[in-house]
Amino acid sequence: GLANDLQVAAELKIQRDQILAQRMAASYLEQNPVSEAELRLAYDDNIDKLSGPQYKARHILLGSQEDALEVIEELDQGQNFEELAIERSTGPSGPNGGDLSWFAAETMVAPFATAVRSMKVGSYSAEPVETQFGFHVILLEDTRDQAPPGLDSVRAELTQFVSQEKIE
């Protein structure tokens, strides 16, 4: 009698509809595969996101502006950035000396990205950078230009992206 239960019947209908939707999408993509022209267009539209400047930085995340100003003062007095990050940072990168590795500025929250873009390699932020996570003291270690990847190296991701757009 479970099939007559309203809750079970509703769940079965949802499962049936999901299976039909998946099969319909697969059938549609079989009949309308992603073309080379669509891939090229998606690549051209997204090339800016796949290339450009990258930054290698460290940061010390603190809970208050006063704490961040104290850290900047300690740095001004010659303290080691990595050691201060290990000792004082409240962020997850603290135990690693605040290392954020390489990143595109666009992947960071706006105030952090703006600060990094304006810094010179080897310098740390003269003022705390406030974000929704707290107050950051940032050390910019290096920059590099990331060359855009070739279409073939991102073909699988772009095919999935274009397929999803076609289904939608």
Secondary structural class: alpha+beta
Q: Compute the average pLDDT.
A: 94
Rg of Cα set: 25 Å
Distance between the termini: 38 Å
* Outline: elongated
| SSE string, helices as H and strands as E | HHEHHEHEEH
Low-confidence stretches: none
Q: State the helix count.
A: 6
How are the strands of the largest sheet arranged?
2-1-4-3
Question: What structural keywords apply?
Answer:
168 residues; 4 strands; 6 helices; elongated; single chain
Structure description:
By secondary structure, the protein is of the alpha+beta class. Helices cover 49% and strands 19% of the residues. It contains 6 helices and 4 strands; from the N terminus they run ααβααβαββα. Strands 2-1-4-3 form a 4-stranded antiparallel beta sheet, sandwiched between helices. A hairpin with a 2-residue loop joins β3 (129-131) and β4. The radius of gyration is 25 Å and the shape is elongated. It starts with 5 loop residues before the first helix and ends with a helix.
Which helices and strands occur, and which strands form pairs?
Layout: H1 6-31, H2 36-50, E1 52-62, H3 65-76, H4 81-88, E2 99-103, H5 110-118, E3 129-131, E4 134-146, H6 155-167
Antiparallel strand pairs: 1-2, 1-4, 3-4
Structure, briefly:
This protein has 168 residues and is an alpha+beta fold.
